[in-house]
Design goal:
- Helix 7 packs antiparallel against helix 18.
- The chain folds into three domains: 31 residues, no CATH class; 66 residues; 224 residues, no CATH class.
- It has 18 helices and eleven strands.
- The strands form four sheets. Strands 1-3-2 form a three-stranded antiparallel β-sheet. Strands 4-6-5 form a three-stranded antiparallel β-sheet.
- It comes from Solanum tuberosum (Potato).
- This is PORR domain-containing protein.
Length: 410
């Protein structure tokens, strides 16, 4: 087995013999031998924590919208509180986040007693119209994303049911298979009936413009700006305070010098355990996270596509092994793979255009909180005025009482 020039130079500079570096030979022979300790990154964890509250609101909204007529008795919704991940009663949660729903009384059955029902508020309906507009404006982006997901897959075919399950991660609309896919028969062919576990989305046409990864597009842009040909490469950087063993750093340096393998290239000829295949797998994960809305995807969700993208059973080790590219968060009890370069100080800097939907939803929540605060302010003012009037009235009573007592003495 040959060593890289850098490693050979390192061996010579220390006057040590190659057999004393058996661990290097082991790492070059077996990628699975690389062990990198997981380290907590509080800033990236906080990015997930910051989205927790509004995502809970979004889950409750989705639950109501999926009901017939988009209405549901409040006590029915309360029974689903645990599944929705709420720690407080549903009425308390809705009071904390006003403006999403209206409450009204109705009967569950014709002769039953009236109970409280929940339905979308007018402001929520306006948001849903705005959401539809944003999807329409970004339809070309949605088509390219879907094509890319198919183009990276082994047979250019992906389970349609799996795509529906991950639509939130990639920003696809609810009517992905019903409306979007049929509009583009030149790209997509839907096989089978969705919902039965045996439906598939097949790529019809290969578009070379879509077959360029974020890494390749970035290299092309740098070449255009500098006039110097830039080789596609990953950004690899650990935050301050992070440390990996010297032997692993050496392996990473050699691995980074390998030619970039595009996630859209045919790699059937590559050995699953080779460093070249590792390069390709990292490229696929990098591209998948880049296509996602928040540049992060729960690892169990990525695991659903092991067959389509030829992931090994131990694929999740890639994220800790390449901790300068990815971060694995354990927030909320779920392992989530995050793309480091997409964040700065825990804030998402590489924003997907479809995140405008989130911005509009946050505006809706903020408007509800503002209205609630204004209502509380008015209530406090009314209470204060009532107390002042009572105080004046009491003073008048005391004054008259004193006058009566003085008259009685005289």
């Amino acid at each position: 087995m040959q060593f890289s020039n850098r490693l050979v130079h390192s061996l010579r500079s220390t006057n040590r013999k190659p057999h004393e570096y058996g661990f290097f030979m082991q790492f070059k022979a077996s990628i699975s031998s690389l062990k990198v300790a997981w380290r907590k990154d509080p800033k990236l964890d906080q990015a997930i924590e910051n989205d927790k509250k509004w995502k809970q609101c979004a889950r409750v909204v989705k639950e109501v919208l999926n009901e017939p007529g988009q209405v549901i008795p409040l006590h029915y919704l309360e029974k689903r509180r645990e599944r929705l991940g709420l720690q407080v009663k549903i009425k308390t949660f809705l009071d904390w986040n006003p403006g999403l729903f209206d409450f009204y009384m109705d009967r569950v059955r014709p002769k039953s007693e009236p109970v409280s029902f929940v339905r979308p508020s007018e402001r929520l309906r306006q948001f849903l119209e705005e959401e539809s507009r944003i999807f329409v404006n970004n339809e070309s982006l949605l088509v390219s994303k879907l094509c890319k997901l198919l183009m990276m897959s082994k047979d250019k075919v992906v389970s349609a049911d799996k795509l529906v399950q991950v639509k939130r991660e990639f920003g696809f609309p609810n009517d992905l298979l019903v409306n979007l896919v049929p509009k583009y028969p030149e790209y997509f062919n839907l096989i089978g009936e969705p919902g039965e576990g045996k439906s598939f989305l097949q790529l019809v046409k290969w578009n070379p413009e879509f077959a360029k990864s974020v890494i390749e597009l970035r290299a092309e842009e740098e070449s255009r700006l500098t006039g110097i040909r830039t080789r596609p490469a990953f950004n690899w950087k650990l935050p301050p305070g992070f440390f990996i063993r010297k032997e692993v750093r050496e392996w990473i340096r050699d691995w980074m010098e390998l030619p970039y393998v595009s996630p859209y290239d045919d790699v059937l000829h590559l050995d699953q355990s080779s460093r070249e295949m590792e390069k390709r797998n990292v490229g696929v994960f990098h591209e998948l996270l880049s296509l996602s809305l928040y540049k992060r995807v729960p690892i169990p969700i990525l695991g659903k596509f092991s067959d389509e993208y030829r992931f090994s059973n131990a694929f999740s080790n890639v994220f800790t092994r390449h901790s300068g590219i990815f971060y694995t968060s354990l927030k909320c009890g779920i392992k989530t793979a995050m793309l480091r370069e997409a964040y700065k100080d825990g804030e998402l800097i590489d924003r997907d255009p479809l995140l405008e939907i989130k911005d509009k939803f946050l505006e809706l929540l903020a408007e509800g909180h503002k209205q609630k605060d204004e209502l509380l302010r008015l209530q406090r003012e009314m209470v204060q005025k009532d107390m002042e009037m009572m105080a004046v009235s009491n003073n008048d009573l005391d004054y008259h009482k004193c006058e009566e007592e003085e008259d009685a003495v005289i």
